[in-house]
Write a structure and sequence with these properties.
The protein is mainly α and 201 residues long. It has one domain. The longest helix is centred in the first third of the chain and has 29 residues. It is elongated and about 50 Å long. Belongs to the class VI-like SAM-binding methyltransferase superfamily. Isoprenylcysteine carboxyl methyltransferase family.
Length: 201
């Protein structure tokens, strides 16, 4: 029986639904002006709009880069750890949590209370991500475990604090992309085609 393959969109659909569920009460408080927590005077609408559009622009750029890599490696059952995936495990989710949601909140939110929404999305991700990680571990084994242990889940800055575990050994060193059942060595940033070899009789 073949390994279960993680879906193309991962837990994206479930994450969106749980995020809406978590954030809805705060959005309703903002829409109906049920709380009086205005933005501080030193952060007027003009500054918020500039800041928000910059955040959204960064998020869209991250989404595009992630989608290009994901669409390239996913159909080939490859584990991609280069490019934006070098800096965090889930750059698509990261783009929403770190850039897009905060950007929309800053532009359209009437109150700073909505800044809680990115944190609630991160909480939803934490609750759901184990399902995706189990499938990836089943597909890629130790290669994924090392990548997971040495790469931040969401915040790229934390990359400098992460180190590969000593008790897990990769199938090959500097494994940037891996295919189920086979690996290869190459320098950081390169991509390599993987082929299964038949057993010698």
């Amino acid at each position: 029986m073949p390994d279960k393959k993680v879906g193309y969109f991962g837990i994206g659909g479930k994450l969106a639904m749980l995020t809406v569920l978590f954030c809805s009460p705060f959005i309703l408080l903002d829409v109906f002006s049920l709380v009086n927590l205005p933005w501080p005077p030193y952060f007027p609408a003009e500054r918020r709009n500039i800041f928000g559009f910059v955040m959204i622009g960064c998020g869209v750029a991250c989404l595009i880069a992630s989608a290009i890599q994901h669409s390239k490696f996913f159909p080939k059952d490859k584990l991609c750890t280069s490019g934006v995936y070098y800096w965090c495990q889930h750059p698509i989710y990261s783009a929403w949590i770190l850039f897009l949601i905060p950007g929309f909140v800053v532009i359209f939110g009437r109150t700073w209370l909505l800044l809680i929404c990115p944190f609630l999305t991160a909480l939803a991700l934490k609750l759901l991500i184990s399902e995706e990680e189990k499938d990836l571990t089943r597909m890629f084994g130790d290669d994924y475990l090392i990548y997971k242990a040495s790469t931040p889940m969401i915040v790229p800055l934390f990359k400098i604090f992460k180190r590969p575990p000593k008790n897990i050994h990769p199938t090959s060193s500097d494994n940037i992309c891996s295919k189920k059942g086979s690996t290869t060595k190459h320098s950081k940033g390169e991509t390599t085609e993987f082929r299964h070899k038949g057993k010698k009789k």
